[in-house]
Structures are given as structure tokens and as C-alpha cells.
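Try this one yourself first.
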């Protein structure tokens, strides 16, 4: 507890405004009335911590909470609107009357509150706000609402999110071991509304409960360890995919209730699958019923558009320097980790938060107090966010989508980092996809795009992303980026997947890419699951499932994802033949996996590779296998190493390197020094 707050006398019970159901008049306020439920209202300490910027569980206090007052059941409403002249609660319980249920302020905190009897679970409501400024009036949904009406309706709904009986105790007890730096993390990124639909029912999306068994079975079959949902928080425009959020504390009602979403997470956990959420603290939309201009002023956002308006997304930027806004956002992060058992947050658009001049021209931004372009308030917010999350939830991860060279994004605060657990490696994604898009005859001139990552691969804890951003807005599908005829396209993509699995770093693949979805992703339709019944698409799918299985089962492929001691180049200079090879090692066990790649359609027969030890090297993966749709060239299960210096190593193997393929060999540990 804050030492200054502790000096004050014991906080009084919440100031709630009972309502006379018959006359509509306000009854006398009883500040000493005992609370009869777990909801205790806002204490003096709550207000102090809120205004100070250190209250990180505001969802327990603000919003709409079912409670009891003097033996009468009802709902306590509270909302932050410090620049409002009047605030009232309106809803289906009063015919959406804008004035019949006025609220009262809670001291000088800027919070308005009221208890209304007989308003129960499921009631729809909004706040009618009249500002002190310019006569502004608006009907706002609840910033802390636990559920909202199904869009295009925009009201909030009183909802009891307590009482769900979780069955994921085994997962929660062990999840810290599932998210560690040295644990395998292969993430399947999905948009809930378009992963699978029901065509015979007007192409509707699956509900949360319908998704649970289907998604869990598929993720397990494909050997992914985690799913990452594009933002599930309520959003009015479906085409924003959730990145234009209005209901930060509510899973979208399009697919069911909050308890239904809990069921989905619970089911995935019981099947051994982690759940990550995309989270958007960088900006919010301008819809009038949302956070924008909430009380007639720039409350959640900066008032100056040079700081508070995002030119790319036509949305508002949070005022990270305001204590109450920081409480709102960090409380929101805690909410999903606490109430929904989420295992990690992928923080969207971090780069836009770090730079004041992000996507702005000269004169369109305001320098910081030192004249620089760094957003010092946002940096401080991100550091506090990560420190508080890891302090209270040490077994989860935060992941930054950060696209610049900002240093130490995933390094601890005590060394000057931002404190994230991981960072997306956008450089790897851009370089690799650009390389793969070249016709193989030109790839030798771009060999550096395969090797450049070696200069920075361990400067951060990286996730290698092949995300939704690469298959939208006219970019085409992942398989569509590959050159050549149909066979070559699939061979290229199988080789790309193998290269990703073999590199240091956690993995992420967007839905549909795993089987070669041909069409660009369309949020209004289902993935083309019928494609998986064809040999090339089904072969690609099986290939990735096997690669994921190797990544999970072979410690050499994941134990040192963030440790330079687990990676070693063998030959990164064979640009003329567009081949490349490296070792993945598991320190302490002696296990070694050799990954070799040929990015041309020309088979390399009698291809020689140096190895650090002799003995048998077992072929454990070959993306050119017949069952994957390849040509079937390979090494008959493995090769024997000769004692002959090659590539600066003591031994050499001679292999058949298939066209447009990756091949993995494993050497079991023995007494030789490696």
C-alpha cells in the first residue's frame, strides 16, 4: 500500500445513489451502509491509487457490477468523466430515458456513480454525458463493460463474469514451463470469425463453443503449441479484425458470451494448448459511442492531434502520460490474464508508440522535452506495463510487434530494456519473403538476405512471424508469393517452412498458410479447407505438421532459441548454388541437428558438408519427400561421416540435396568433444 494512503483513516463504504423505484426520486445517500456482496465500491484508497496511476485492477471497481443494497438486488454503475456537467444511466430498463437516472460525483475524482435496484444480468445500458465544454452531449458505452450488444448495436450489457468453473488447473500450474525462453513455441495465428464457417447456415461464423473442439483437434494434429487470436475485444467494424477496439473489457459478442469465450480458452488449455491475445494499447477508433472525446474533451486521447491522432489508421492515440489512462490500460492487460486465464499478450504497433514522428511529416509532430522524437511517456508506460505483468503473472509472456531497430525491446528494465518477453523479427520476415519471391535463377544475387539475420539473431528474444499482415491488402497469399509452376511453388513454401523451423526463435504462422491457401485472406469467408484434400495442399500441411513435431521433440531445435551457443554456421557463403547450412545444438546433451537448404530447382548430387563429428547422421526431415508432394530425392535414411576436414570441421558427409528443399540430419551424442 502507498505509505501516504496508509496514513489516512479507514476508507468509508462506497458512495452509491439508491433509486426510489416508484417515484423515480433519489433517496437519501447512506454512506455507512454495509456492503453485502464481494463488490465493495470505490474506497478512498481506490480513488487515490486511480488518480496516482497505480490502480491496476480497476475492472473490479468501475463499470457495472451486480450487487445488493439494503437487501435489494441491483446494479452499481460507475464511470470516469471528470469534465462532464451531468452523467446519467440510460437503458432498456427506463426506455432509454436520458435524464431519469442521474449519477453523482465521487468527491473530486472525476468518477460518477449510482446504484439502481432491480437492474439485473443482461440489461442493456449506456451513459448519457453532458459536457461542461461547448454543450457536447453523447451516449457512451461503458469503457469497463464486460459485454456489449452484438454489432451493429452498440450498448453495453450488465454481465456477471464470475462463476465460471475452470477445469484448466493442470495447465495453469505448469504453464510457466510452456512459455519459457528455452521451451518450444510454435504459434498458430487465427481470426476467429473466418477460420471456419458454416456454409449451409448462411456462411455464419462458428461460436466460441463450436470452435473449441474443432480448433483444439486441428492445432494438436498440426503440433502447434499455442494459438494467437487476432483481437477479440469488442469492435464495431468487423473489417478492422478487432484492431479498432471500443470494448476493451469485453470479448466480441459476435461469437457468444464471455462465459463461452472462457470455455474456448479452458478447452484449449485442457488439450495442452496455450492462448495468446493480440492487444491494442496504441490507438482506438473515433466512433462516438466509444472512448473518443468521452466527456467532451480529449480524456483518453491527447487533445492536440499532433499527439493524439493517428494519420494512418484515422484513430486516436492514448495519452500515455495521464495517470488514469495508464491505469485503464494496465488494468485491461491484467483483466485478460486474470479473468480469462490468457497466457500472453502480443502488443500491437509498438513502433507507433515509441516515436512521436511515426508516419508524420515535419511540423506534424511535437518533440519531447529534450527535443527528440522518442515518446518518453509511452516508453515509460511500456516499461511499467511489462514490469507489472511479470511481477503479478511471472508465468506469462508479453510479445512486441516492433518493426524498427529500437534496442533492447525484449531485455529487462534493469539493463535499459523495454521489458518485453519477445519481439517479432520483422526484418527476417521481410528479407526472407523478398528472397523467396525471386526466381531461383536470381537468388544468388540476393544471398545476403538469407544470412543478414545472423548479425542480430540474438540481440533480442525473437518470434519469427509469417502473420496475417502478409496475406492482406493486395499482397496475395503466401503460396502466391512463391515463384514457378504449381509444383515449384509448393516446394518453395515447404523449404521456407523448414528454414523457419530450423532457425533460432519462436515461430508464428497465420491460418491458411499451413496448407497453401491460394486466395488472399478474406475476413468475410472461411478458409478453403477443401484444398487440403488435394495432394500438394495436403502434402504441405503434413510437412509442416512434421516440422512442428520435430521442433517440439528435438531440444536442439528449441532449447537455445535465444542463446547463441545453440547455433553455428556451416556454410553461409555458397551463394552461387543458393545453398546454405547451419547447426543447431543443445548445450549439455551433445545433440546436434544439421539443416541444409537448396533454394534452386537443381538437385545437388554428391553435395559435401563439413560436420563436427563422425559416425552416422540420420536424416530426420526432408521436405522433398513423396508424401509431402516432393520428388522423393533423399539419402535413404542417413549418411556416414568421413574423417576428412571440410568447412573447417573434422569430418565430412556427402549427401543428395533435393531441389527447392530443406533436409535435416541428426547426430546422436558420443564421447567426442563438440
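Now uncover the answer:
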Amino acid at each position: 500500500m502507498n505509505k501516504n494512503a496508509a496514513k489516512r483513516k479507514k476508507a468509508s463504504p462506497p458512495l452509491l445513489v439508491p433509486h426510489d423505484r416508484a417515484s423515480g426520486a433519489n433517496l437519501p445517500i447512506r454512506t455507512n451502509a454495509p456492503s453485502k456482496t464481494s463488490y465493495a465500491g470505490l474506497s478512498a484508497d481506490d480513488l487515490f491509487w486511480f488518480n496516482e496511476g497505480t490502480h491496476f485492477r480497476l475492472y473490479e471497481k468501475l463499470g457495472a457490477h451486480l450487487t445488493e443494497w439494503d437487501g435489494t438486488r441491483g446494479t452499481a454503475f460507475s464511470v470516469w468523466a471528470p469534465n462532464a456537467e451531468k452523467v446519467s444511466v440510460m437503458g432498456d430498463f427506463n426506455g432509454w430515458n436520458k435524464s431519469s437516472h442521474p449519477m453523482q460525483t465521487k468527491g473530486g475524482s472525476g468518477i460518477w456513480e449510482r446504484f439502481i435496484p432491480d437492474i439485473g444480468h443482461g440489461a442493456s445500458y449506456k451513459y448519457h454525458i453532458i459536457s461542461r465544454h461547448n454543450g457536447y452531449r453523447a451516449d457512451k458505452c461503458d469503457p469497463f463493460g464486460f459485454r456489449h450488444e452484438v454489432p451493429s448495436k452498440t450498448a453495453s450489457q450488465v454481465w456477471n463474469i464470475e462463476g465460471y468453473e475452470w477445469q484448466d488447473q493442470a495447465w495453469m500450474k505448469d504453464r510457466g514451463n510452456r512459455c519459457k525462453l528455452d521451451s518450444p513455441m510454435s504459434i498458430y495465428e487465427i481470426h476467429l470469425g473466418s477460420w471456419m464457417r458454416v456454409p449451409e447456415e448462411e456462411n455464419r461464423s462458428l461460436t466460441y463453443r463450436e470452435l473449441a473442439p474443432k480448433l483444439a483437434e486441428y492445432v494438436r494434429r498440426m503440433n502447434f503449441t499455442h494459438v494467437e487470436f487476432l483481437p477479440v475485444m469488442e469492435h464495431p467494424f468487423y473489417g478492422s479484425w478487432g484492431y479498432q477496439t471500443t470494448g476493451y473489457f469485453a470479448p466480441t459478442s459476435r461469437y457468444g458470451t464471455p462465459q463461452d469465450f472462457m470455455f474456448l480458452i479452458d478447452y484449449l488449455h485442457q488439450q495442452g494448448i496455450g492462448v495468446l491475445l493480440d492487444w491494442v494499447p496504441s490507438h482506438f477508433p473515433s466512433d462516438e459511442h466509444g472512448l473518443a472525446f468521452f466527456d467532451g474533451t480529449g480524456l483518453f486521447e491527447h487533445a492536440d492531434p499532433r499527439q493524439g491522432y493517428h494519420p494512418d489508421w484515422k484513430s486516436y492515440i492514448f495519452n500515455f502520460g495521464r495517470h488514469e489512462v495508464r491505469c485503464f490500460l494496465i488494468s485491461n492487460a491484467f483483466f485478460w490474464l486474470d479473468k480469462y486465464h490468457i497466457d500472453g499478450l502480443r502488443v500491437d504497433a509498438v513502433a507507433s508508440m515509441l516515436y512521436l514522428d511515426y508516419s508524420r511529416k515535419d511540423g506534424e509532430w511535437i518533440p519531447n522535452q529534450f527535443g527528440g522524437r522518442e515518446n518518453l511517456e509511452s516508453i515509460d508506460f511500456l516499461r511499467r506495463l511489462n514490469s507489472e505483468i511479470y511481477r503479478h503473472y511471472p508465468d506469462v509472456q508479453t510479445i512486441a510487434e516492433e518493426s524498427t531497430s529500437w534496442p533492447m525491446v525484449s531485455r529487462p528494465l534493469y539493463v535499459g530494456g523495454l521489458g518485453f518477453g519477445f519481439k517479432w523479427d520483422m526484418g527476417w520476415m521481410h528479407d526472407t519473403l523478398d528472397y523467396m519471391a525471386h526466381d531461383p535463377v536470381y537468388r544468388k544475387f540476393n544471398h545476403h538476405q538469407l544470412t543478414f539475420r545472423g548479425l542480430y539473431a540474438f540481440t533480442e528474444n525473437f518470434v519469427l512471424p509469417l502473420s496475417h499482415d502478409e496475406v492482406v491488402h493486395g499482397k496475395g497469399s503466401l503460396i502466391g508469393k512463391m515463384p514457378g509452376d504449381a509444383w515449384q511453388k509448393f516446394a518453395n513454401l515447404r523449404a521456407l517452412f523448414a528454414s523457419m523451423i530450423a532457425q533460432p526463435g519462436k515461430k508464428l504462422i497465420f491460418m491458411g498458410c499451413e496448407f497453401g491457401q491460394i486466395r488472399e485472406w478474406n475476413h468475410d469467408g472461411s478458409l478453403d479447407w477443401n484444398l487440403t484434400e488435394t495432394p500438394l495442399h495436403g502434402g504441405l500441411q503434413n510437412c509442416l505438421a512434421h516440422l512442428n513435431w520435430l521442433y517440439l521433440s528435438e531440444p536442439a531445435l528449441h532449447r537455445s532459441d535465444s542463446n547463441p551457443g545453440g547455433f553455428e554456421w556451416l556454410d553461409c557463403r555458397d551463394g552461387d548454388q543458393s545453398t546454405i547450412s547451419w547447426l543447431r545444438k543443445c548445450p549439455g546433451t551433445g545433440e546436434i541437428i544439421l539443416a541444409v537448404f537448396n533454394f534452386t530447382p537443381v538437385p545437388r548430387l554428391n553435395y559435401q558438408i563439413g560436420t563436427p563429428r563422425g559416425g552416422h547422421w540420420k536424416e530426420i526431415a526432408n521436405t522433398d519427400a513423396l508424401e509431402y508432394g516432393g520428388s522423393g530425392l533423399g539419402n535413404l535414411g542417413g549418411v556416414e561421416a568421413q574423417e576428412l576436414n571440410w568447412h573447417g570441421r573434422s569430418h565430412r558427409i556427402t549427401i543428395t540435396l533435393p531441389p527447392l528443399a530443406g533436409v535435416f540430419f541428426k547426430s546422436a551424442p558420443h564421447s567426442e568433444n563438440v
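Discussion: The chain has three domains: 3-157, 180-291+343-370+397-416+423-558, 564-667. Residues 3-157 form a domain with the Immunoglobulin-like fold (CATH 2.60.40.10).
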